[in-house]
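Please, structure for the following, as tokens.
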Amino acid sequence: MEDIKEEIVNYLSKRKFMTLATTQKDKPLTHPVAYVNKGPILYFSTSNQTRKARSIKENPNVAFSVYERTEHLDEIINIQMEGEATIVANKEETEEILEMLKLKFPTMADLTIDSDNIIIKITPKICHFTDYTKGFGYRERVEY
């Protein structure tokens, strides 16, 4: 199981974007989001006023997927994860994540955290790791 968890972290570390799913008043929403990760935990910055931020405040249960486009079924690799999203309140953690975002995304060099911008942390609960390069239909379920 630890090998799969390591594969998941390596996969997440090499990608930049996820599709985040939230709900708002029982209405499903998806959001393209740039992220950084520390192990299997993902972080992103957003305005406090976005639909995703409002949705997370209403219901912290989220799901996301990370994948690369391919035209061939035998090349499909992706992660589908369920977790809990929280707003990072710790100043040191916020500053660390802000620096990680700036390194991974140089266009965020001017990004600051203030009353309008926040850092959101997604702590995983369940992950479905699909890797058809290991055989058609290969999928692992991992709990955190």
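Residues 2-143 form a domain with the Pnp Oxidase; Chain A fold (CATH 2.30.110.10). The longest strand covers residues 117-131.
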